[in-house]
Specification:
Blueprint: H1 10-17, E1 33-37, H2 40-43, H3 56-62, H4 79-93, E2 97-101, H5 104-107, H6 116-131, E3 135-141, H7 147-150, H8 159-174, E4 181-186, H9 188-197, H10 208-232, E5 237-248, H11 254-277, H12 282-287, H13 299-303, E6 309-322, E7 328-330, H14 347-360, E8 367-371, H15 388-406, E9 411-417, E10 436-439, E11 444-447, H16 449-462
Parallel strand pairs: 1-2, 1-9, 2-3, 3-4, 4-5, 5-6, 6-8, 8-9
Antiparallel strand pairs: 6-7, 10-11
Helix pairs in contact: 1-16, 4-6, 8-10, 9-10, 14-15
Bound molecules: beta-D-fucopyranose.
């Protein structure tokens, strides 16, 4: 390291080491983007303020039995009111970038006209971040569909794709110049499959055929929005965020091997292939016979329009075996490390997937890891949160990204999920993903040790 390092107190260096990626890695260079991420419904609260209309998550979480402990996003982290101190928190971390999402129900009335108060909230937030030199990665749709659109069929209705494009047009005209990168959708797999395929998420419908149709309309909305974003905000980069999953098998038969492959097709290629090759994978319809979506002429060209970046969200690996038919069953491995979610800690899966996508997709754009992180049952003890497992998780996943970069994958940045504990969808507030602890009674934020370690690493990288 350079002489600048000497300015860092030794304990800060030791703290940084708890998470730091390999020193030789490109991730230590200034151009690599380090960030933290959140999403509107998970942090904002203020669901009935300043003209916000209800979203599908308000409706879904109000139904008994849908969300653990009956939690809802009504108050969440009260970020709508505390945004200014939250920006100070982000700044204090020393990150280069912040990834947030816009709540569609906050910025547009049901008749399609702008809701000024909602737009003003994001304008002042983005302006403040820009003033502080923090890059802004903005996701347009992180699952909070206005309920009035769900009442007309939601993502099962092709018209919703056009309404999404209108929304993207409005927001990018209004926020033009304030955004570094626009992502159209967050994890369309989850919106389609968890929302319409198995009903675990809002709007809570369960039919595989609906999931493939919903996904098609989501991707169509993405493709329709791209040229509008580019026209309205030519300087910003445009892309999408996809969750990806690693599937392997401990089974010994050919059927088990195929089962693991099909898991990856279902989790990854169902989304990536239409975006990057303009077609749906045939294997998907071997897994789910008869579920082909209705695709109109020209749709696949719209869906596969070029993007400037692909956001990848990675959390865990699954162990699959054949279900005896065309599908797979998840057979959890024993004796592996797991998180509060029960998800296996498996950093190698991130490297494997990044390498596979590079070899499989000629048109793979530059990648940002837009989410990665873990939940633990964190508590403040004597003013401190010692989240040792999270620090190991971060360090091992940083190392996996570094290996993928060394293997030639163009990864430009990494965003930790999440800036702070928040409303973890169907799991409510019990599952804590933050590098900052939130006390939901007092709304006090306490930077966890993982957050302090990231802060120390970033300070060291800057040489300050
Ligand atoms: C992802 C979501 C994000 C968060 C993490 C844990 O699927 O995009 O909002 O809930 O999982």
């Amino acid at each position: 390291m350079t002489s600048q390092t000497n300015r860092i107190a030794p304990n800060a260096q030791a703290l940084a080491e708890l998470v730091a990626p390999p020193a030789s890695s490109l991730m230590s260079r200034p151009e690599f983007v380090w960030g933290v991420a959140t999403a509107s419904y998970q942090i904002e609260g203020a669901i009935a303020e300043d003209g916000r209309v209800p979203s599908i998550w308000d409706t879904f979480s109000a139904k008994p039995g849908k969300v653990l402990h009956g939690d809802t996003g009504e108050h969440a982290c009260d970020h709508y009111h505390r945004w200014s101190e939250d920006v100070d928190l982000i700044e204090s971390l020393g990150v280069d970038a912040y990834r947030l999402s816009i709540a569609w129900p906050r910025v547009m009335h049901a008749d399609g006209t702008p809701n000024r108060k909602g737009l003003d909230f994001y304008k002042k937030l983005l302006t403040r971040l820009a003033e502080k030199g923090i890059q802004r990665f903005v996701t347009l749709y992180h699952w909070d569909l206005p309920q009035y659109l769900e009442d007309r069929g939601g993502w099962l209705n092709r018209d919703t794709a056009y309404r999404f494009a209108e929304y993207a047009d409005l927001v990018s005209r209004e926020l033009q110049g304030l955004v570094t990168g626009w992502a159209t959708l967050n994890e369309p797999w989850c919106s389609a499959y968890l929302g319409y395929g198995n009903g675990h998420h809002a709007p809570g419908l369960a039919n595989t055929r609906w999931a493939t149709q919903a996904l098609h309309h989501l991707l169509l909305g993405h493709g329709l929005a791209l040229p509008l974003l580019r026209a309205n905000d030519p300087v910003a980069r445009c892309g999408i965020v996809a969750n990806v999953g690693r599937g392997t098998t401990d089974g010994t038969t050919e059927a088990d091997r195929i089962a693991a492959q099909r898991y990856e097709v279902q989790h990854n290629d169902w989304i990536l292939q239409p975006l990057l090759k303009g077609s749906y994978p045939e294997e998907l319809f071997k897994l789910w016979p008869g579920t082909e979506p209705l695709v109109l002429d020209g749709d696949m060209e719209i869906i596969s329009r070029p993007m400037d970046f692909l956001g990848i969200n990675y959390y865990f690996r699954s162990n699959l075996r054949s279900d005896g038919g065309t599908g797979f069953v998840d057979v959890p491995l024993k004796d592996v490390e797991r998180t509060q979610m029960g998800w296996e800690v498996y950093p190698q899966g991130l490297e494997d997937l990044l390498r596979r996508f590079k070899s499989q997709y000629d048109r793979l754009p530059p990648i940002y890891i837009t989410e990665n992180g873990m939940a633990s049952d964190d508590a403040v003890v004597n003013g401190e949160v010692v989240d040792e497992q999270r620090m190991r998780f971060m360090k091992s996943h940083f190392a996996a990204v570094a290996r993928a970069i060394d293997a030639g994958v163009d990864v430009r940045g990494y965003f930790a999920w999440s800036l702070m504990d928040n409303f973890e969808w169907a799991f409510g507030y019990e599952r804590r993903f933050g590098i900052t602890h939130v006390d939901y009674d007092t709304q006090v934020r306490t930077l966890k040790q993982s957050g302090r370690a990231l802060q120390a690493f970033l300070a060291l990288r800057r040489g300050s």
